[in-house]
Amino acid sequence: MPLHLQDFFALLGHQDGVLVKVHAVQGSGPREQGAWMAVFGNAVVNTIGGGHLELQAIEQARAWLKSPDQLPSGANTPAQLVRFALGPSLGQCCGGVVHLAFDRVGIADLPRLRVELTPPMHALGLFGGGHVGRALVKLLADLPFAVRWVDSRDEIFPSQTPQNVACEHSHPVQAAVADLPPNAAVLIMSFSHAEDLDVVAACLQRQRQHKDLRFIGLIGSKTKWASFRKRLSQLGFTEQELTQVTCPIGVGGIPGKAPEVVALAIAAQLLQVCASACAPT
């Protein structure tokens, strides 16, 4: 579960708040429909875009917290819609119109909000517990990915990992490929080129049988991939099948090879892959 949701639900466990959601956007706006923040008497969780829009929304929400009869709570109570024009009067120049929904919520609303606000999670098989893998897990902690983190080595994983990460020791490491959920993305970055090759081959074999992996990404250079292509061809995989593997991985134009930099480029590519897969056809 993303960290901001954890913070919201923890606060809601002992005090009422106001959930502010972007109900609709006309023209340009700072956040998309569905973006939200939670306002409490002494705390704000998440954001609807910042600026004067957010400041006015916080002031309005806190005013309603002080006068609960003006903003009733309950699952069957409609949210209060307020229109904000993003022009000079608001001190913003986006030029659009944002309609915000204000909903007073309390501990009784937790079950509903867990369903309503928890984003759909994208399955990811991450093979390799090294420096880049660790940096990537930290980046994905607050992003909508359900990570299955796999390594063949004992005691490689940190003692604490984010809630969206499940650690798994697998020997041989490629055996875990068969258990990944459908539509999973796979990132391969083990400590061993031999293990990397075995995992790539297992992914391609699964694609041959089921065609249900969203993305297969292999860390490394073009030279590494040229060597892998030759070995995989010798194992019987066709040129068309080999095009399903992306190597090197990560969006281009980001200099540096520090683990945190490489992880950032890979995380950006994952978001692009998932956005493309979820785009309407």
Can you put this structure into words, describing what you see?
The protein has 2 domains: about 5-115, no CATH class; about 120-280, NAD(P)-binding Rossmann-like Domain (Rossmann fold, 3-Layer(aba) Sandwich). The model has no long low-confidence stretch (mean pLDDT about 90). Helix content is about 35%, strand content about 20%. Helix 4 (about 130-140) crosses helix 8. The longest helix is centred in the last third of the chain and has 20 residues, at about 260-280. It is elongated and about 70 Å long. The chain has 8 helices and 11 strands.
Strand order of the largest sheet: 8-7-6-9-10-11
Distance between termini? 29 Å
Overall, the morphology is: elongated
**Beta fraction of the residues?**
15-25%
CATH level-four homologous superfamily name of the largest domain: NAD(P)-binding Rossmann-like Domain
Would you give the CATH topology of the largest domain? Rossmann fold
Rg (C-alpha, Å): 23 Å
Report the CATH architecture of the largest domain: 3-Layer(aba) Sandwich
Return the structural class.
alpha/beta
Work out the number of β strands: 11
Task: Tally the helices.
Answer: 8
Order of SSEs? HEEEHEEHEHEEEHEHHEH
Summarize the main sheet: 6 strands, parallel
Helix-residue proportion? 25-40%
- In the residues, how many domains can be counted? 2
Mean pLDDT metric: 91
CATH C-level name of the largest domain: Alpha Beta
Low-pLDDT ranges: none
